[in-house]
Amino acid sequence: MKINYFEDTDTASIHFTDQEVAETREVSENVYLDLDKEGNLVSMTVEHAGEKANIEKFSFERLSKVAS
Question: Does the pTM exceed 0.85?
Answer without folding.
Answer: no
